[in-house]
């Protein structure tokens, strides 16, 4: 099985993160699964709608390329996953988003969920995500660590104090959500998901923490296996009907 994992960070600027992500995914993937991590330049460096939209265009193009290269699935390794539905309608292979898969898994683990995002700039986008996936009534709130991509560089380079500061920021927001009734917590950001990837059974005051990086990988492998087992693909009804070759050609020639 061959998966292509699309990160939304720059391969040069965030090399320690991408190297660690590749190492983690390779170590935790099932036997026979190969994960290819790719970055993006310019990355999603200015948080907000315009950057998300720009990055979505690159991600959809890369998803089409992944299918042409023979990959079995394409993974949006960015929790906001802009362009997820468009990529799903542009490819004949499974297209997975770590946001969608994590939220659906969290709905299995608990009744009321709280999301902890990297930055409050994503709050509205996350609210739109949970509504899109039919989970709006089950979200008690969305917290924000107010961290920047640069804040993670030291942590991934081995700075213990930097790592702990980020964990403390997460737990602070998590406890606010728990006080509102959350019984499952979702890590709404791949950077923090990787930072705590080595933690097993992580919880805050007994409330389980869903790691979007781990769930995204497991979901992608499951999706490919089910596709091979049953032949089922994404809906070819109105939601994700595969775009014709001309439409894909027009998109790629923009």
Automatic annotation (TrEMBL):
The name this protein goes by in its record: Unannotated protein
Organism per entry: freshwater metagenome
Segments crossing the lipid bilayer: none
One of the record's GO molecular function terms: amino-acid racemase activity
Family under the similarity heading: Belongs to the HyuE racemase family.
């Amino acid at each position: 099985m061959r998966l292509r994992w699309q990160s939304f960070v720059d391969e040069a600027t965030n090399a320690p993160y991408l190297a660690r992500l590749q190492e983690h995914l390779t170590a935790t993937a099932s036997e026979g699964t190969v994960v290819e991590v790719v970055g993006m330049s310019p990355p999603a460096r200015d948080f907000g709608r315009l950057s998300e939209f720009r990055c979505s265009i690159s991600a959809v193009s890369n998803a089409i390329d992944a299918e042409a290269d023979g990959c079995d699935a394409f993974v949006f390794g960015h929790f906001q996953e802009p362009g997820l539905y468009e990529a799903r309608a542009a490819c004949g292979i499974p297209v997975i988003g770590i946001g969608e898969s994590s939220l659906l898994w969290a709905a299995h683990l608990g009744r009321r969920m709280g999301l902890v995002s990297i930055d409050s700039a994503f709050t509205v986008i996350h609210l739109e995500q949970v509504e899109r996936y039919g989970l709006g009534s089950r979200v008690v709130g969305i917290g924000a660590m107010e961290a920047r991509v640069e804040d993670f560089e030291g942590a991934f380079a081995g700075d213990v104090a930097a790592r702990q500061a980020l964990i403390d920021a997460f737990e602070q927001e998590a406890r606010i959500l728990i006080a509102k009734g959350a019984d499952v917590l979702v890590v709404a950001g791949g950077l923090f998901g990787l930072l705590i990837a080595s933690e097993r059974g992580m919880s805050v005051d007994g409330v389980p923490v869903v790691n979007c990086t781990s769930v995204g990988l497991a979901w992608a492998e499951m999706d490919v296996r089910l596709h091979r087992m049953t032949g089922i693909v994404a809906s070819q009804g109105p939601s994700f009907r595969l775009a014709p070759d001309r439409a894909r050609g027009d998109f790629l020639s923009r």
